[in-house]
Amino acid sequence: MSEVAGGSSFIPPYHQFCSGRRKWKDQVVKPNRQWRHVVIQPKWQPLIKNQMVKPSTYTSRIFTDLPLYESPGALFDEYLEDKPRVFKAIFPDKRRSQRINEEEWKIQMLPIQFLFLTVWPVIDMRLRCKTGGKDYPSGVPHNVTKVLELDIVRWELQGLDDLLKPSHFSLGVKGALYPERQAMRSRLKGQLEMSISFVLPPVLALVPEDGLRSVAESVLKTLVENMKHKVNGSLLADYNEFRKQKAKNLV
Question: What is the pTM of this model?
Answer without folding.
Answer: 0.70
